[in-house]
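Run log, item B.
One chain of 867 residues. Sequence copied directly from the ordering sheet:
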Amino acid sequence: MKHVELLAPAGNVVALHAAVAAGADAVYLGLETFNARRGADNFTIETLREACDFAHLRGVSVYVTMNTVILPGEVDAALECVRQAYRAGADGFIVQDIGLAAEITRTLPEASLHLSTQMNTHNLAGVRAAARLGAERITLARELSLPEVALLCAAAAEEGMEVEVFAHGALCVCYSGQCFMSSMIGGRSANRGMCAQACRLPYELKNGALQKSLPSPGGHLLSPQDLCTVDMVPQLVGAGVASLKIEGRMKSPEYVAAVVAVYRKALDGALAARAAEDATEDAIEAPVPTAPVTDDDRTRLTEAFSRGFTTAYLEGERGNAIMSYQRPNNRGLFLGRVDEVRDGAAFLSSSQVLAEGDVLEFWTRKGNAVATLGPVRTDRKGCYHIPLDSKTRTVRAGDRVFRVRSAEAAFADDAREPLVPIVGVATLHVGEPLAVEFHPATVADLRQVGFIDDDSLTEALDSATTDGLATTAAIARRLQMLPEVPVGSAEGAPVETARTRPVSFDDVAAHVDRLGNTPFQLVRLTVDMDDGVGIGFSALHGVRARALDDLAAALNAPWAGRRLPRVADREPLPAAHPSGCRIAVTVTNPACARAAKRAGAHLIYVPALNYRRGEAVIAGQKNAAAEQAGYPKGCIPIMPVVDHEAVGLSREAAVAYDVWKYADGGKPLMAESLASLERADEEGALISVGAHVPVTNELALRTVREMYGAERVWLSPELTLRQIEDLAHDAPLELGVLLIGATELMVTEHCMLMSQGPCNEDCATCSRRKSPHFLKDRKGFEFPVITDAMGRSHLYNAVELDVASSMPELMAAGISAFMVDATLMNAEETAHAVGRAIRALHVAQNDGNAIAKMPNTTSGHLYRGVS
C-alpha cells in the first residue's frame, strides 16, 4: 500500500520537536533568508544540521523552504544556501523561483526538488511543466476541487512525481504567488516572505456607479476561514495524494502538537481502512487502526487556532461560506454566553472545563475584551465566576465567550521527546566477546510484544497516551520502510565464567534496558547466554552505549559525508538586440483596442477572458481570430493566470469555455503562468512571458529562454531600476516593464462581489459585474475590483502607476518594451495613456529628456524596492 506522508510546519526548534513528538512523517522549515516566512524564528545551517540529525534518527524527513523569488545579485547566495543545506542533511527543497528550480536540477541532481504552491500549479500543463523542471513533488494550489486533485495526482504519477496538498491551516484569499497587495501598499512582499497580511484588514465594498457602500456580513472582506480537512482525509488518500501538509510556521508549538496529533489519528485511520480492503496487505505490517475522529478531536483543532473552519474549494465552495468576514484572527473555542454580570464578575455556564491560565475573549457590543482566568471559581449552580477589570468592564449578559488559549495545551519541549523503539540482542558466551546489537523495531515487533494492538489506539484513552502510541507506531513504520535495516553493534572483552554469583537473564535485561538520556526505548530484548557466566555491569553498560551510538550513526548514515558535485559553468546565451523600442497596451474591449491603435501602440494585447463584460473577449465567433470580434488585426491574446481543467467542480467545467482556441502555432501570445508557458510551447506559439510569472533574476531569464524559447519577458513589478539594469545586461531576450496603468494586486477564486449577498453564480451574465466596484480601506483608498467571466476576482491598486517620466533611465537600463495597462480605462483614457507613452518615448529618443510625472500616481517599486 502506498505510504502517505503527514507534513508539519517547524518555525523553530521547539515546533520541530512538537511536530515529531506528535507523529509527523516530515517537517518543512526555513533558513534565515529565501523563505516565505521570514518572520518565523527559522534555522541557521548549524541548527538545521542538528534538526536533521534529530529528525532522521526518528525516520522523519526535513524539507527546506526556498520559496521566494530571487532578486538579481542574490543568485549565488541562494545557490550556496541550497548547497550548504543539502550538506547539512536536507531531504528536499521547496522552491518558487523558476530559475532556482532549474539550476538545482542541473547542479544538484541528487537533491529532491519540490515545487512550492507559490508556483500556482492547478492544471495538467502545470504538472508537465513541473516534470520538465525536474521536480519530484508538486504542492498544488489550494483552489482545487477534489476531482481536480485526483486528476492531477494521476497525471503526476505518470510523470514519476508526487503530489502534496494543504490539509489544514490558514488560507490565502489570493492564489499563492500572485499577491502583490502587501508589497504595493506597504513595501513588504509576500513573494519575499514578508507578507503584512493586508487581506486581514477591514474593507468596505463600494458600488462605483451608485457611489455608495454595500451591506456585508462583516468588515473583513478578504479574510477566509481556515482550512480543515480532517473529515476528508480518506478522500484525499483515495485521490492519490502523497503528502498532507499542515500550514503554520508562524504558529506556536502547541498548535503544531495538537494539529499534527489529530491528523496523525485521521491519517492512520484512513490508511488502516484502505489496508483492510487490500487482501494483499500483510496484517501484521498493516497500519494500526485508530478510533474515528471525534468531536473532542475537532475541539482540539479549534482550540489550537481557528478563524472558523472550511473545506473550501475541495468541495466546490467559493462563496461567503468560506469567509471569516467578522473576525480575521483566532476566534478560539466557543464556551457559551454570559449568564449574568454582577458584583464585578461575569458568570458563565459552559460544558467545557476551564483551567487557571486559560485566555478568554468576550465579544461585546463595544468590541472584544480579553481576560486571563485566575484560580477557577464556580457558584452553587456550577457557573464559572470570572472577575472583570477595566479591560473587560464592557461585558454584558448575553455576550459570547471564547477560549483563545488553553493553559493545559501548553507544550513542554522536554516533556515528550519521541523515542525510537528498538529491538536488542545481547550475546554472552564464555570465551567470546560480550556483544550487544540493536536495530529499529517494526510495527510487527510492536504488535508481537503487545506494545500496541488493534485496541490500543481505538479505545477511549487520554490524548497524551494516544498521541504517544501513535507516534511510536509512526516511527516504527517509517524506519521499516528504509531500504536497508540500520544495525548498531558493539563488542567488549571476552565473557568469563562467574567467580562468585552468576549473571542472570533478568540482570542482563535490566542493565541493557537502562537507556537513560538516549533517544531510544527498548521494546524487545533477546539474551543469548551460557549458564554460569559472569560479567561486570560497567562493561555491559559501555558495550550497550557504544552499540546505541553505532545505531544512531547507522540511522544518520545516508546523510553523513554528503559531497557536492562539481558542475561546469553555463555557457552564456547570446544577448538579444531588439530592433527598437515599442509601446504595448493591454485592452479589454474592441473600442479601447482601436483607440490604442490610432494613438500609435505597436503591440495590442487582449485578455482571453474579458474582465469587464458578460462574455469572453473573443467569444461568440466561429472564427477565433481577434479581428472577427471587432478587434483590429494583430491583437495578441493573453492567457489567464488561472485556467483550471474543465472537470469536477471547477468554474471551467461550469462555464465550458476554452481560451486555448486562440493559441495558434507560429503566432504570438502572452503566458501568465508556468502552466501557460508549457501549453504555449506545446502549441508552437511565439511566447511573451507576462509579469505574473515572476522573472526576477538571470537564471529565470535563461530558463524561460532555453526551456520555452520565450522572445520577450515583462518583468516583475517588484524590481527596482538598479535591479532591472543588472538583469538587462546582456539579457538573452527582450525585456519590458509596466509603464502606465493599473497594477493587479490579487487574483482570487472567491468572488469579492459575493459579500453583498448570495448569487446564482452564473458569472457570464452576472448583473453585478456590469457596475464598477471598489474595496475601500481604512484610509479611504479605493481598490478597483473586477470579476471575470469565470467568476474570479481581480483586485487592482488604488493608485495608478506612472513611470513614463523614467523612460530615459529605463531605456538606458536596457528596457525596450513599455506596457500601458488600460484594463480600467475607457477608449478616451486609453488613447491618452498610449499617447503619453509615445510622447515619453519620442522625447527620450530625441534629446534624452523626460516628460513630467503625472500627479496622484505612484512609481511602484522602481526606486524603493521591497523588503
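Observations after the first pass:
- The CA atoms of residues 232 and 311 lie 8 Å apart.
- DSSP finds 21 helices and 37 strands in the chain.
Flagged for discussion on Thursday.
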